[in-house]
From TrEMBL, chain A:
Keyword ATP-binding: no
Protein name per its UniProtKB record: Tripartite tricarboxylate transporter permease
Residues covered by the DUF112 domain: 18-445
Keyword presence, Nucleotide-binding: no
Species this chain originates from: Hoeflea poritis
UniProtKB/TrEMBL annotation, chain B:
Keyword annotations: Membrane, Transmembrane, Transmembrane helix
Keyword Thylakoid annotated: no
Entry keyword annotation includes Cell division: no
Native organism: Hoeflea poritis
Protein name: Tripartite tricarboxylate transporter TctB family protein
Signal peptide start-end: none
């Protein structure tokens, strides 16, 4: 492990890579701060740039953008009560009231220290967990991988909101369907190309991500009546951020919260599909319960614990979500799905072999997380008053620029104008589906995993003489599939159980 | 609610899944693979069944009965932006990067309410030129800057 850390340090600490960590954190903060644009859009916008870099540098850049975007999202949550992403919604519960009390600087500092601590602690867990899991998963066969991918896809749906499980599953299947467009990998026959040569190579992952996130976000912002006036008023109100100092008493209050929320966030992050949003809400809820009646009442009115907990947890979860990506090659969230796509674009297959075949990439990602967190604390925090000015840029300038960067990002990779037209079409479809509350992240996950899933299933069948019996004969495959089924049906069964119990209670009271 | 968001979305995706299923039958199979357990059609056929099944379930058990609210949105503006992006895709080659992108940005800013010609030009043109220089000189990504009739 020590050797690995040294390799990681050697790679991550080169002047070029440090520069990209700085740039990534800053760009990520900028983009993440814009309401509506989250880490997924930020990373998607960076892919064309990352594609022209060395694999390790490209991944370091994207990881830095990821952290920066989460941090940026917290800033807009605190300053103008407009969370850039779902994972920073809980931050606004106490961050915004603090800003309203004239303590915006303190709130930003607490958010930054909590994010930093959560990220650093989780990176230590990652350091221990990733090589161990990678070593275990070396014994996995194609059948197990197929089952793992089924688990990853069902878990995403299982963690969807109430009533959204079916929609999330349906969108996952739509993503899997889109992944089958193009020439079949083994037989070489075209599928769903509609006779168009431009579709022979399939739909570009970058195109789909840009269209469904960056492009559709901007289009939705155009659709909604302008919020510029309100935003500028809020910005003017929070121009004076106040002191950024955190007192000793406040630090002591934060310390246990950070410890608990880091562990909770990391564990939630490792679970496929759960992610930073659930982690932040869970940490907030846990701390509210643990705070006792007196302190608990302050939650929602500017509580330091209430701000520190979700901020720590969402950063720890972001780090945790790298575990399944780096060790199993299975993305645990939409963001890591985009990163997986980028890695595949480099010709790198994440998974247990990554640790052995590409140690520089594996370790430098882990080490860059520490560097990224330090950069966020040292560079971004003092710069926040200036970076926050971006929130005052009128959307009439911002939105066309986002559209331009999305379109040109895709065009610069393929130099095919057909891609721009296809992107416009997908952007339109994404807007309609998002307008109807159908989630996009499961579709991206399905799209990314589709090709690998089909390949592993085909290989497993080939090894097993065309028999599907491997699904129940291999203990590992069966176990993973049972967990997948549990993930899928447990929430439904639990909801039914709760309903029955309430019904029984009511009947008891009535009798 | 008959026309809830979930039901409309479910219907649209059901139509997509049925079309996908019909098209999956056009996938050519090599004669030697006719009896294989896994062919180029297997995955699409499984997905078709799953997709149709889940769409029908969404229609039968919608998560919410919320109806889509169409009023109060800038539909016209969004449609114009879609047309503008498509036009940008059509003009980027014949007009070159600098002119087509500048026009795209100027039209975009103007559509969203910017009326000052000076601001329109000052924000778009220098940005496009700087971006082009960054891509060609900094990242070695060449893109034709000028229209065909101005090329040397």
């Amino acid at each position: 492990m020590i050797e690995g850390i040294l390799i990681g340090l050697g790679t991550a600490l080169t002047p070029t890579n440090i520069l990209f960590v700085f740039a990534g954190c800053l760009i990520g903060t900028f983009i993440g701060m814009l309401p509506g644009l989250g880490p997924m859009s930020a990373i998607a916008l960076m892919i064309p740039v990352a594609a022209s870099l060395e694999p390790a540098t490209g991944i370091i850049l994207m990881a830095a953008v990821y952290y920066g975007a989460i941090f940026g999202g917290s800033t807009s949550s605190i300053l103008i009560n407009a969370p850039g992403v779902a994972s920073t919604v809980a931050t606004s519960f106490d961050g915004y009231p603090l800003a309203k009390q004239g303590k915006a600087g303190k709130a930003l500092a607490i958010a930054a220290y909590s994010s930093f601590s959560g990220g650093v602690i989780a990176a230590i867990f990652l350091l221990v967990a990733a090589p161990f899991l990678a070593a275990v998963s070396l014994s996995f066969h194609s059948a197990d991988y197929f089952a793992l991918m089924v688990l990853g896809l069902t878990a995403v749906a299982a963690f969807a909101g109430k009533g959204d499980v079916l929609k999330a599953l349906l969108m996952t299947v739509i993503g899997l369907m889109l992944s089958t467009v193009g020439t079949d990998q083994t037989q070489g026959v075209p599928r769903f190309t509609l006779g168009l040569i431009d579709l022979t190579d399939g739909i570009s992952f970058l195109l789909l991500v840009m269209a469904t996130f960056a492009l559709s976000e901007a289009l939705i912002a155009i659709l909604k009546p302008s919020g510029d006036d309100k935003r500028q008023e809020e910005m003017e109100a929070s121009t004076n951020l106040g002191s950024m100092k955190v007192t000793g008493a406040e630090a002591r209050e934060m310390a246990p919260v950070i410890g608990r929320s880091s562990i909770l966030g990391f564990i939630i992050g490792v679970l496929p599909g759960a992610g930073a949003t659930i982690a932040s809400f869970l940490a907030y809820g846990t701390e509210q319960r643990l705070a006792g009646p007196e302190k608990g009442k302050q939650f929602g009115k500017g509580s330091i614990r209430g701000l520190s907990a979700p901020e720590t947890a969402n950063n720890a979860a972001a780090t945790g979500s790298f575990v399944p990506l780096l060790t199993l090659g299975i993305p645990g969230s939409g963001t890591t799905a985009i990163m997986l796509g980028a890695l595949i674009g480099y010709g790198i297959q994440p998974g247990p072999r990554l640790y052995i075949d590409q140690p520089a990439v594996f370790w430098s990602v882990i080490v860059s997380m520490w560097i990224g967190n330090i950069v966020l604390l040292v560079l971004n925090l003092p710069l926040i008053p200036y970076i926050a000015r971006i929130l005052a840029i009128p959307s009439r300038f911002l939105l066309p620029l986002i559209l331009f960067f999305s379109l040109i990002g895709v065009y610069f990779v393929s130099f095919n104008t057909f891609d721009i037209q296809l992107m416009v079409l997908f952007g339109l479809i994404a807007v309609v589906l998002r307008f109807l509350d159908f989630p996009m992240a499961p579709m991206i996950l399905g799209f990314i995993l589709g090709g690998m899933m089909e390949e592993n299933l085909r290989r497993a069948l080939l090894i097993n003489n065309d028999s599907w019996s491997f699904l129940w004969q291999r203990p590992m495959t069966l176990t993973i599939l049972i967990i997948a089924a549990f993930c899928l049906f447990a929430p439904m069964l639990w909801a039914n159980f709760q309903r029955m119990r309430k019904g029984a209670d009511r009947a008891g009271e009535g009798g | 609610m008959l026309f809830s968001k979930d039901r409309i979305g479910g219907t649209l995706l059901l139509a997509f899944c049925i079309t996908y299923g019909i098209l999956s039958q056009n996938i050519t199979l090599l004669p030697i693979q006719a009896k294989a357990a896994f062919t180029a059609r297997t995955m699409p056929e499984v997905l078709m069944v799953l997709g149709i099944g889940l769409s029908v379930l969404v229609l039968i058990f919608p998560g919410s009965n919320e109806r889509p609210q169409l009023a109060g949105f800038n539909w016209g503006k969004a449609a114009l932006f879609l047309a503008l992006m498509s036009a940008y895709g059509l003009t980027i080659r014949p007009l070159g990067f600098l002119i087509s992108t500048s026009l795209f940005l100027i039209a975009g800013f103007a559509l969203l309410g910017e009326r000052s010609p000076v601001k329109l030009l000052l924000v778009s043109v220098p940005l496009v030129v700087c971006f082009w220089l960054l891509m060609t000189q900094g990242l070695d990504v060449f893109i034709e800057p000028l229209p065909w009739f101005l090329k040397g």
